[in-house]
Automatic annotation (TrEMBL):
Pfam families: Aminotran_1_2. The keyword Secreted does not apply. This is Histidinol-phosphate aminotransferase. Signal peptide: none annotated. GO terms for molecular function: histidinol-phosphate transaminase activity; pyridoxal phosphate binding. It comes from Staphylococcus gallinarum.
Amino acid sequence: MTFNYHYHIKEDVLFIQSKKKRSKQGKINLSSNELLHEKSFELNKRIMKSVVEKSCINSYVYFPQFIESYAEKEGINPNNVLLSSGSDESIRIILDALAEKSGNVIIQYPEYENYFSYADLKKINVKKIKIDRTGSMTEDGNLNTILSKANPSIFIISNPNGFTGKAKSIKELKTLAETAWQNNHIMIIDEAYAAFTSLNHRELLEKYDNLIIIRSFSKKYGTAGLRLAAILSSEKIINYLKKWNMPNSISSIAYNFLIEIYKVSSYYNDIFRDIHMSKNIIGRELEKILKINVTSNTDTNFILLNFKKKYLAENFCAYLADNNVIVRDLSHIKNFEGVVRMTVGSVNYMEKVLSIIKNYHLNEGLYE
């Protein structure tokens, strides 16, 4: 006799694809768009040493004081802030709390995989608005028209986009927020890459009480392993989301790190400028070496390598993997065939990568 899981497990969930993780230890990871800069490494190391000394790990954290401190630094009302253990958790909280009743999500595609995974778990209908590598829609109409005709939904947009690297202007987002508000959609702006731009989505919160901003610190401060994010929205939505957020899900180390890093946040502006400069330098070098077009003028910390054919992209990624460099092949996504996404760090950080790629050009060849 065996235990019968039938009474407890949803059979259809077994067929939902989970995000696959692979070890990147000892490798140069240029696939996750983490902040790769020597100054960031040094700042985080110094802050972490200080934080560990002052964090009390044998007691639960009194988190309201950290929300108040964060809100003060950002110049917003604490009642408009909810802190969570990373942007993944923020996505889960929002979809759990708000998407199930309407049962509808409208989202640009491609987009971060976990939006689709969480929607599948909740059996939420997802309408994908397909875009190409320039960020342009590949179907008739525009976002405002689609929002005007759709039933009340959760409308999700990353700005900048994590696949095209392109950002919409505040003016464009204001128009979308207005259309969403008029048609009873909740609008989510995922600003994981916003630190690499001058965009300030927060000004939209003052006018649109249907707006939610997910603010990750992973890419902004190079703290992906810390697992900490902020949700910004109207007081009514924040109070509702609190019911889905576990109050003790964030460690005292993460809370204290957030407060300490704001004391040196001005240093990161120089780091962001360095990353943009590095993108241009690395992009030009790769164009010379590989004889391909490289999109370097992104609003993020990654560039796009545009190979002519899918198999060329696959061969290139396989070669780098054999040399302990991981990049992301986007060829499986329609309209992104032959495109490889590569995180760019400082020029010094990228030197070894360039030398490896030069050997590929000499030894492997790219052309038929």
